[in-house]
Amino acid sequence: MVAEPHIGVLALQGDVREHVVSLEECGARASPVRRAGELSTVDGIVIPGGESTTMSRLLEAFDLLEPLRRHLAEGMPAYGSCAGMILLAGKVLDGRPDQHQLGALDMIVRRNAFGRQVDSFEEDLDVTGVGGGPMHAVFIRAPWVESVEPAVEVLARVPETPAAGRAAGRIVAVRQGSVLATAFHSELTGDRRMHELFAGMVGAR
Amino acid sequence: MAEMLKGGVIMDVVTPEQAKIAEDAGAVAVMALERVPADIRAQGGVARMSDPDLIDGIIDAVSIPVMAKARIGHFVEAQVLQSLGVDYIDESEVLTPADYTNHIDKFAFTVPFVCGATNLGEALRRITEGAAMIRSKGEAGTGDVSNATTHMRQIRAEIRKLSSLPEDELYVAAKELQAPYELVREVASRGKLPVVLFTAGGVATPPDAAMMMQLGAEGVFVGSGIFKSSNPGQRAEAIVKATTFHDDPDVLAKVSRGLGEAMVGINVENVAEPHRLAERGW
Known about the structure:
- The structure holds two protein chains of two kinds.
- Chain A is of the alpha/beta class.
- Helix content of chain A is 24%, strand content 29%.
- Chain A has six helices and twelve strands.
- A seven-stranded mixed β-sheet of chain A has the order 2-1-3-4-12-11-10. Chain A has a three-stranded mixed β-sheet with strand order 5-6-9.
- Chain A is globular, with a radius of gyration of 15 Å.
- Chain B is α/β, with parallel strands linked by helices.
- Chain B has a single domain (6-268), classed as Alpha-Beta Barrel (TIM Barrel), CATH 3.20.20.70.
- In chain B, helix 1 links the parallel strand 1 (9-13) and strand 2 (29-32).
- Chains A and B meet through helix 1 and helix 3 of A and helix 11 of B.
- Chain A: One of its GO terms (cellular component) is cytosol.
- Chain A: L-glutamine binds at residues 50-52, 111, 140-141.
């Protein structure tokens, strides 16, 4: 196990700083990544929350899309929250037709599934592999996972409560090998367990 | 909750077609309005909330968040915008103020608000009223970035000053800023606002956007600068790239090439004082 995993945070747009702070608090070294060269220097990559369409556009414009796909195919650990989950998925519903997918998770996500900004939603979730009680999850214009292939392990679903409405039972956290994704923003709540899990995955490689 | 917009560009649009161009270019959100600030300035008259049909049309056209403007203090315009399902409300000095004493009580709404500020005291008063996002005001509709620079530097300088003060001087600092002591203390200890700080007003070129980012903005609003230029799609995309790579002059040089004419603009100093929008709000 590496003592201090070096984890990059894709810094094209979104809440990069919150992820950097979360990772550093877990004892990892974190740095922003905006260029293909920087991607080669890190042991794992976080794709933050933000607008997936904007990030997709910038990935293409700055020739990061293929290098990122290649690193993921070669097994680079990755964690995506919200927009990051959308980008990591194989297929997106309600996205833009020209939106790029990294295809690191064999699943279909639905973009903005929870609705608009005013439909932002908070819920306590039990997450498989995360000990110490439920996590408080914040969903902002969040996606959910519509369906997964057998290779994808479901880590959390929205509880089946009346308050959850259409979201009840939806998949919101997954793992496939060394790739982790949450529909919620673990970087916003001060609860570092998701980042600890990911830093452990990177360190274990 | 406006963190997801950070590092992004929010563009003023007046039609669904413009909204699509903005989304194609990589905007993180669009501001739906009937007239861009340059036209409001040129045409005069009372500027109000946009027609709900226009806002609906823009909401339907794009998948990114849609913002809309309410007049300062016009809490009913804000109620209408919330019922339309906009993602953010901008309580904006670009429109004619509806109340010269009070701003909207933004805690009474579930939709988040963005508000303009020219200095730290103004920013903290807006946050106290419930703003989830602050933008420097600049002088909208001019294409002259100098006021945005002034406001950004002012806010950042005042935050740095607060951070350097001993604890016992924060009480008077709060009095002078006309802001609650608890909020002043929080800003002093964290060295930043408790909400995101964007910039607005007069941004017309990729280096304008990049300069504001280097001055400490967390993202950029572009009003008239895109759709009053000769090649909006290309300019919009260039400003998005310049905002992400704001610290890389090679990228800035590359994206600045061949953009055609920027908006003509007017110098802020040639705008008669009663017509300066930045001075609305208090």
